[in-house]
Design goal:
CATH topology of one domain: Arc Repressor Mutant, subunit A
Number of helices: 4
Strand order of the largest sheet: 1-2
Number of strands: 2
Shape: globular
Structural class: mainly alpha
Distance between the termini: 37 Å
CATH class of one domain: Mainly Alpha
CATH superfamily of one domain: Winged helix-like DNA-binding domain superfamily/Winged helix DNA-binding domain
Helix content: 25-40%
CATH architecture of one domain: Orthogonal Bundle
Length: 111
Amino acid sequence: MTLRGPFLPAAAPKSGPAACCLGRYPRYRYSSLQERPVPQTSVVVHSDPEILGGTPVFVGTRVPVDVLFEYLEAGDPLDVFLDQFPSVTREQAVAAIDLGRAAVVAGARSA
C-alpha cells in the first residue's frame, strides 16, 4: 500500500487476515436511500480556517475527508483506512460515504 495525503501512519499497516475486521461489525443492507437515513454533514465533516487551512476534516480530528476517498479509490478496504487513522470512527467513515452516495443519487435524479 502506498501512503497518500500529508499524513504518515504511526505504525506499518497490518496485512493478511489480521487487517480485516470481517465479522467484528454487523453488516446492514438497504435497498434504497429512503430506508437508510443520511447523516447531517455538520455531524461528520467540519471545516475551520484554523485546521489545515479550512480543508474539510472529520469532526474531532485533523484527518481530511478526501483521504478516505483516496484510500477507497485505490482499492483499499475501509478497515485499512481506519487502521491508519484511528481518530476516525467507523461510524464517521460510513457516514461520509453515505453523504457521498446521497449527493450522487440526488444529482442523478435532478438531471
